[in-house]
Design goal:
single chain, mainly alpha
């Protein structure tokens, strides 16, 4: 979010450095997500979770490219980076609201 807010108005080497920083942050989170899914998901759900994750990722990518072209065509890159910063802030707020602990399964009493 910080790098998206810094990007509008930057040119030359400053914009390259800022773009490099937010690309490293964006692509650096991918292995962390995969690790968390592999570590926290139960075996029978893991493949389903990865499948849903990739379907959602490719669907968002297909929708994002025309939206980027529309925003750039009407308002330019500065507005695009402000929209991306706002999106990052919404995602951050959603992550902050996630529970801090996973629910523990309750023991089921055995039948006699």
């Amino acid at each position: 979010m910080v790098f998206f807010l810094l990007m509008p108005g930057l040119v030359d080497w400053a914009s390259l450095a800022c773009a490099l920083a937010f690309m490293l942050a964006a692509f650096g989170q991918i292995p962390i997500n995969d690790y968390m899914i592999g570590r926290l998901a139960e075996g029978e759900w893991r493949a389903r979770i990865y499948g849903v994750r990739y379907v959602v990722s490719f669907t968002v990518l297909a929708a994002a490219l025309p939206l980027i072209a529309f925003v750039y065509g009407h308002w330019g890159f500065d507005v695009l980076f402000r929209i991306l910063a706002l999106s990052a802030a919404v995602i951050l707020a959603a992550v902050v609201m996630l529970p801090t602990r996973l629910p523990q399964p309750q023991a089921v009493p055995a039948r006699a």
